[in-house]
Design brief:
This protein is mainly α. The protein contains 1 helix and no strands.
């Protein structure tokens, strides 16, 4: 005997899923930016000090 299962995914469920996926993607992009930004910031500060001195 085969049973049919009906599943309703309403707007609340899809909105929550979208928010979770969006949050994960944004946090990954921001962490990658932070990892790459701070070393370059330090290099630019050293170069700026050498030019001013």
């Amino acid at each position: 005997m085969m049973m049919s299962i009906y599943l309703y995914v309403g707007p609340g469920m899809s909105g929550g899923l979208f928010a979770a996926v969006f949050g994960i993607i944004v946090s990954l992009i921001m962490s990658l930016f932070a990892i790459l930004y701070y070393p370059f910031k330090k290099i630019f500060r050293k170069l700026r000090k050498k030019e001013g001195a």
